[in-house]
Amino acid sequence: MRVTQQMLFNRYVYNLNTSLTSLMDLNIKAQTQKQINKPSDDPTGMTRILDHRDTIRSLEQYSENISTAKGWLNGSDEALLQVSTILTRAKELATQAATGTVDSDNREQISYELRSLFEQMVGLSNTEFEGNNIYGGQKTQGAAFEEIMWLTTNDDSFASSVDFTVNGSADTTVLVQFLDESGTVEVGGDMNLSNAGVRYSIDGGDSWLSDGYMTFSAGQGTLNLPSSGTSVDFASDTIVKNNDSEDPTNSDGTWLWIRPSVRYLGDDNDPPPDVDQFGTGSGTITASASGSFLNTNVTVRIDNSSAVAMNEDIEYSYSLDGGINWVTGNIAQADTSSNATTLSVANGGILRLASNGSNQLQPGQQFVIRPRTADIELDISSSERVRVNDVGKDIFGGIYMDPDAVTAADGSILTLGSANASRVFQSDGAPNMAVSIQGDDEYSKNLFEVMGNLIAFTETNNQTGVQQALANLSEAQKHIMNSTADVGGRENRLEVGQTILEGLQLNEDTLVSSIEDADVSELMTELAQQQIVYESVLRSTSMIMQLNLGKFI
After folding, report:
1. What's the Cα-to-Cα distance from 304 to each of 142, 153, 160, 267, 310, rounded to whole Å?
2. Is the peptide bond before 39 cis (omega within 30 degrees of 0)?
3. What is the DSSP letter of 413?
4. What is the pLDDT of residues 496-517, one digit of tens each?
5. What Rg value do the Cα atoms of the chain yield, rounded?
6. 342 and 284 together in one domain
7. The whole model's pTM is what?
8. Are residues 361 and 437 both part of a single domain?
9. At CA 52, angle to CA 46 and CA 53, rounded to 5?
10. Which residues contact 421 (CB under 8 A, 6 or more apart)?
């Protein structure tokens, strides 16, 4: 074969480029100290590296979530500890006011500090983290609580049977008594509100004002108290008890304390869930739900091929993701109840259906179960989430208007009152109006209501009421400490989660390093060898390229 100069030149260039490429690859590895810099270096190794890097990014996100969660929970922890400290001071003041050795002036002086403590509690209940309210549920923008006026009475029957709305506001407790203007009703006797006169005090009972009056319109009576800045709406046929016109300290009649309280404005997790109906026949069925739905909407679909009665086998499916995927093959077995049936849904949830004009369920008919949700949760691992916020009313209490009342109003603006709102933690059947002698029931945990009553009783020199409020303060503080412990438990979960993440991240970094990182000593040896090879190629090529026939002529 004839070897031409072109062939020699091409071979020289090829060898030079090959040696130079190898040298440059080793040089890049020396610069990065990594043996895999691009997929072609090791396709399998690069795939493994990318998988591990995805895992590391997930771990970094979990770590960032933990850092964010710590911010939320540390803020809540500190706020609750401050509330507990304030409560301790409030108990000290209440203990002083509850003794018989202090007079009305002393109790009035104590009430000034109690109002200041109350304001501080309201401020702490609106604690924010990065502009988000911690205690408003998922309503993180704006205040979770606002100050309002509410009622306390000494009349059990009045409290149990009367709805009210307080209008306006006052800087001090307004004490109200009703009087018989006809002179025919004995002290403590019942009389209709329409026949009652009014006296009230805005200085704790030291003096009484007589400019109060009742007005009536469309079945509603309004108690007007001009000098106080407040008024109260009742039903016009409300019954009250007559007070002693000569002795304002006689408590046989109906007394009202118009005093401070706090309204919760956030979300709740309270059962039961709402149920919406869709499809043919939805108006003839009553649907309700109970149990656990893991804070997610559940859609239930009737799968029978034709209309089915409630006492027959009912085939149904349910979806936890809005109808994308369905759990099929569920059957509610036939029974003897022709007008009601119960369908079991995942995670312990139950859908109850009852006749409301028809006991027939139609094919394709759907029911959407919507549990109330207020939790904000962050993922701290692939299988664990931590709640970072709280439902403020479940900690501090106050007054709460149920969202169902707002829905039932069908767009109308509702004025807060006992007909559409209630005291948090009150026992079943208990009145929405507080009574001056309150037993140790669930209501005692309602911090804002207990503090509101304590302020009212110290401002109006009611020793018995102060003593009851003092006992309730202890219950409220226990509840606050239990809530603090709950927050602390979640903080501990974050600490454990952070430790686990650090271990996992170290393991992933080690695995990536074992695949990706170069052995520096071995790399330096290879680099030196390749440099010698490249220099040899250059030298030999230069020598051969200089040889030609002219040198031998």
Report:
1. 48, 57, 49, 38, 12
2. no
3. P
4. 999 999 999 999 988 987 787 6
5. 39
6. yes
7. 0.86
8. no
9. 85
10. 263, 399, 400, 401, 402, 405, 432
